[in-house]
Specification:
This protein has 634 residues and is α+β, with helices and mostly antiparallel strands. It has helices spanning 17-23, 31-35, 55-65, 77-87, 192-202, 206-217, 263-272, 284-293, 295-299, 358-363, 378-392, 411-425, 512-535, 555-560, 570-580, 584-600, 609-628; strands spanning 4-5, 41-49, 91-96, 117-120, 136-143, 157-162, 173-174, 177-180, 227-235, 253-257, 277-282, 303-307, 338-342, 346-352, 366-374, 394-396, 429-432, 438-441, 453-458, 464-466, 472-475, 486-493, 496-503. Helix 4 (77-87) crosses helix 13 (512-535), helix 5 runs antiparallel to helix 6 (206-217) and helix 15 (570-580) crosses helix 16. It is globular and about 80 Å long.
């Protein structure tokens, strides 16, 4: 668990010699890898939480959950549709409201992410504000074919990931804890059941998770030798007892790492660690914020470091309040948040989502793990070497070099303040009117200050102005496949704009037909036949992974493309049935539903002539398949 550059995407294809040297101690393991089911298993349930997210990363996570994410973090259109159809109702992403990024160029399919996203409307504004900030995934897997489980073997596997990164496109430094359930032996990890229970309640999934919580009571975890996990704690509400943890007395050294700091937390850390050698790693703007307040606080640290500059690919700003602020440092190169204290016989490590701020440890929803590591163990050695390698990648900071000049408030700061206010107070609702236009209404008339203006629209449609002091707008008539419970918000001020996706549930919810129509529109007829072929195989067909999910094929692409079902026969379906074992009925049922979509598809063009002929032939044969398998078409 040394610090690592953590990313949903893969590592570079051609690492330099310097990269290889760093990886000896700082392995880069994509989160996607942690979520992929073990061979012969499939995902059953998942609860995932983060502060912010990018739709493309959420799509990559869904693909990984069915083992169809490529090394680059991307997959095919067919695989993504299969993932969304298979995982709906099983996977939930809990995110701070207003922190889902807009994805330029993506087509309508990511609008189906509204089936997976649980917005958490914490009020972020002001000194008393708080954020939904935990970073955690807890996942259960079940056998693809239960008949293959041997007697005495568990009929489930569990995984837990706990870290500091969001579900966004960055490669900042992170420190994460990853655990798998142990087949035999293993260790008890206090707090996992309580974490799952709290997340299930937040996702309104308590009923579905109730039997799984009982199962978690008996799960033993594969913990590296020499490490004892004392506790895992998820704090959801402010509490007088919540505060930066007290380290055991008299550590030899302390390494404190966080992108965001405040004076109160640093003073508390210094006072509780006595004469220890204290090193602090952060980002320069945060160090300067503390220096502006009082340089004496930073004088209590033996060493100050800042992370080396990285490519600026900023996505979101988490919070920019003047005191105890916690920003989302996508462009800063640092996500890792941990305290590492060294003693004569034992090392102590706290890691997780809280920054070194009162907001992080006292008000936000946060998660952290408390570990003790036996000195001299392989785990202790690996951590010490990893932390030292990480420190060497940072730049030493001289206290006198930190600027104490006041920071002027920019238009970007004002936009951020507006986003925090709007995301919590808009409380958008949608409903269809008699003429099938869509009414979007907010709780109260919306008034923007400073001359700002707001636009609103569907994920894949143009945005329209929201009039000042209005409480509702009307979106034009669109096909059901264009509707979503996520709407694109744009706020503009002085020539600068801020975009995000805001939750906006429909009165009565969106019908299942939306998902089917959207999938058909996204794939086209040839893509639906590819999906049919893919569904016939328990783990899918790699041959159909030809169209990247983020690419909309042109008419020429469609003309060049050929469906993969040319070799279809009754015998091939029966063979797929046999390969699926006890899961055979489920496989045929899923394939039948896709075939029904293809039969109802009415958007075929001249480029689909071959696919139309194939579909007609397939429909004639499918009744024979159903008869041979003892069933009938649903």
């Amino acid at each position: 668990m040394p610090p690592r550059k953590s990313s949903p995407a893969a590592k570079p294809d051609s690492p330099t010699q310097a990269d290889l040297e760093v990886r000896k101690h700082l392995p880069s393991i994509p989160l996607l890898t942690h979520l992929e089911p073990p061979e012969g298993w499939q995902l059953d349930r998942a609860l995932c939480a983060a502060y912010s997210a990018h739709p493309s990363v959420l799509c990559a996570l869904l693909l990984a959950m069915i083992n169809r994410s490529k090394y680059s973090g991307k997959g095919s259109r067919v695989a993504l549709v299969r993932a969304m159809r298979a995982l709906r109702g099983k996977v939930h992403f809990m995110l701070q409201e207003g922190r889902l990024a807009v994805s330029p160029g993506l087509d309508a399919l990511p609008a189906m992410l509204d089936r997976f996203i649980v917005p958490v409307p914490y009020a972020e504004s002001g000194h008393a504000g708080k954020s939904w900030h935990p970073k955690v995934c807890i996942v259960r897997y079940r056998p693809a074919d239960p008949s293959l489980i041997k007697q005495g073997e568990p009929a489930y596997q569990w995984r837990l990931w706990l870290g500091s990164r969001n579900f966004t496109k960055d490669d900042s430094w992170d420190l994460a804890l990853f655990l798998s359930s142990a087949g035999k032996g293993g260790s008890i990890v206090p707090g996992v059941r309580e974490v799952a229970d709290s997340l299930a309640q937040q996702a309104a999934e308590s009923a579905a998770w109730a039997p799984l919580l009982k199962e978690l009571d008996g799960v033993m975890w594969d913990v590296p030798r020499g490490i004892e996990i004392k506790s895992i704690e998820l704090h959801l509400h402010p509490d007088d007892s919540r505060r930066l943890p007290d380290l055991p007395l008299s550590p030899k050294s302390v390494l404190a790492v966080a992108p965001f700091l405040d004076v109160t937390s640093l003073k508390r850390l210094a006072e509780s660690t006595g004469d220890a050698e204290r090193s602090l790693v952060s980002i320069r703007p945060s160090l300067e914020d503390v220096a502006r307040a009082t340089s004496k606080t930073l004088e209590t640290f033996t060493n100050l470091y800042q992370l080396a500059p990285v490519n600026e690919d900023a996505l979101d700003i988490e919070d920019a309040d003047s005191a105890g602020h916690d920003q989302d440092p996508e462009a800063r190169g640092l996500h890792a948040k941990f305290l590492w204290a060294r003693y004569e016989k034992t090392d102590v490590l706290y890691l997780g989502s809280p920054n070194l701020t009162a907001r992080g440890w006292e008000r936000n929803a946060e998660i952290h793990a408390h570990l003790e590591i036996k000195r001299g163990s392989p785990a202790a050695t690996a951590l010490a070497e990893g932390f030292e390698a990480f420190r060497q990648r940072c730049h030493r900071v001289e206290l006198g070099s930190l600027s104490k000049s006041p920071k002027p408030k920019t238009s970007e700061d004002v936009l951020e303040d507006m986003r925090k206010q709007l995301a919590t107070t808009l409380a958008l609702k949608q409903k269809f009117r008699a003429d099938m236009t869509v009414l979007v209404a907010t709780q109260k008339p919306m008034v923007l200050t400073h001359g700002a203006r707001m636009k609103i629209g569907r994920v894949s449609d143009a945005r329209i102005p929201w009039p000042q002091a209005a409480s509702e707008v009307i979106l034009p008539v669109m096909g059901i496949e264009k509707e979503s419970e996520l709407l694109h918000i744009e706020v503009t001020l002085q020539g600068k704009s801020l975009h995000w996706l805001q939750s906006a549930p429909f009165e009565g919810g969106l019908p299942d037909a939306r998902d089917d129509t959207l999938a058909a529109s996204y794939l086209g007829l040839s893509g639906l036949l590819d999906l049919f072929a893919d569904e016939l195989e328990l783990h899918g067909l790699p041959e159909v992974d030809r169209e990247p999910w983020g690419h909309r094929p042109s008419e020429k692409d469609r003309q060049r493309g050929k469906t993969r079902m040319l070799g279809f026969s009754v015998e091939s379906v029966l063979a797929a049935w046999r390969r699926a074992g006890n899961a055979g009925p489920e496989v045929i049922q899923r394939a039948t539903k896709v075939l029904d979509l293809a039969a109802a598809y009415d958007g075929a063009s001249a480029a689909d002539r071959a696919a139309v002929r194939q579909l007609k032939s397939l429909l004639k044969s499918w009744s024979a398949v159903q008869s041979a398998l003892g069933g009938s078409r649903a």
